[in-house]
Amino acid sequence: MNQRSALAKVKTFEFNPLGVNCYLLSDETKECVVIDASAFYADERELLLNYLLDHDFVIKHLINTHLHFDHLFGINMLASRFDLTLQYHEADEFLLEDIKSQLQMFGLPSTNMNFKPETGHYLIEGDVITFGNQSLSVIHVPGHSPGSIVFYNEAAGTLFSGDVLFHSGIGRTDLPGGDYEELVNNIRTKLFILPDETVVYPGHGPATTIGYEKKNNPFVGLER
Predict the structure, then answer these.
(1) What digits encode the pLDDT tens for the residues 142-200?
(2) Is 20 a member of any domain?
(3) What pLDDT sits at residue 6?
(4) In the prediction, which pLDDT does 162 show?
(5) Residues 152 and 161 sit within 8 Å (Cβ to Cβ)
(6) Would you say residue 143 lies in a domain?
(7) Residue 111: what pLDDT?
(8) How many domains does the chain have?
(9) What is the CATH number of the domain that holds 154?
(10) Within a domain: residue 223?
(11) pLDDT-above-70 percentage for the chain
(12) What is the span of the domain harbouring residue 14?
């Protein structure tokens, strides 16, 4: 099969007060993965659920780029409804121990978050997540958080970067476990080696490309 004949479709939802991008990747087999299920409000959860049901999708994997609270709001709904186990990097699990205070810091009710870490499954660098005729490679890129990972679809030329790399920006490093120098180094050595035309779908804000960020990003750009 020609790799370019049946690329994964990317559906983007912008959820919750912090504007997190939740991505649903699917192909012609109807199998899909959900990245960063961040639906906070009831209407957001209904929108995500109805989209899945209306398209007859089968969720093969529920995966997270990291475990900051704003990327977790919709996890319980999908996990319980479809009997799924959240997959993430173990190094971020400590963040789940103090979710309530994080929510209070942003003025959000703690009743919206009661994810239990024992329900998780660990991902490490080099893992390959498969669904339908697609595959995503796991790349560990700590710095924004110790367990930040990104998902790379080489065939489609797409990267789901979480809060590691944004359009003209990078993730904040002033939260527990953050490390600015580590983040910058990892972006340059692990992400900027990807083809320039790779489309980057970040955890917040618009999509970009590796080539654009290498040239223009004020924090990690190589040509500035």
Answers:
(1) 999 999 999 999 999 999 999 999 999 999 999 999 999 999 999 999 999 999 999 99
(2) yes
(3) 73
(4) 98
(5) no
(6) yes
(7) 62
(8) 1
(9) 3.60.15.10
(10) no
(11) 92
(12) 3-216
Own/partner pairs for 89-92, CB < 8 Å, 24+ apart? 89/122, 89/123, 89/124, 89/140, 89/146, 89/147, 89/148, 89/149, 90/122, 90/124, 90/147, 91/142, 91/145, 91/146, 91/147, 91/177, 92/66, 92/67, 92/145, 92/146, 92/147, 92/148, 92/177
Question: DSSP assignment, residue 65?
Answer: S
**84-135 pLDDT tens trace:** 999 999 999 999 887 877 788 788 776 656 556 556 799 999 999 999 999 9
In whole angstroms, give the CA distance from residue 42 to residue 24.
Answer: 18
Q: Give the model's pLDDT for residue 136.
A: 98
Q: Which amino acid is at 134?
A: Q
Neighbours of 93 (CB within 10 A): 16
Structure-block tokens of residue 197:
């035309």
Selection from 111, 208, 195 nearest residue 161 by Cα: 208
Mean pLDDT for the chain overall? 92
Residue 33 placed within a domain: yes
* Torsions phi, psi for 204 (to 5 deg): -145, 145
DSSP state of 189: I
Beta carbons of 31 and 132 less than 8 angstroms apart: yes
Hey, what long-range contacts does 8-13 have (CB within 8 A, 24 or more apart)? Answer: 8/132, 8/134, 8/153, 8/156, 8/158, 10/158, 10/201, 11/51, 12/201, 13/39, 13/44, 13/47, 13/48, 13/51
Give the rounded percent of residues in the chain with a pLDDT score beyond 90.
83
Q: Provide the token pair at 91.
A: 């190094």
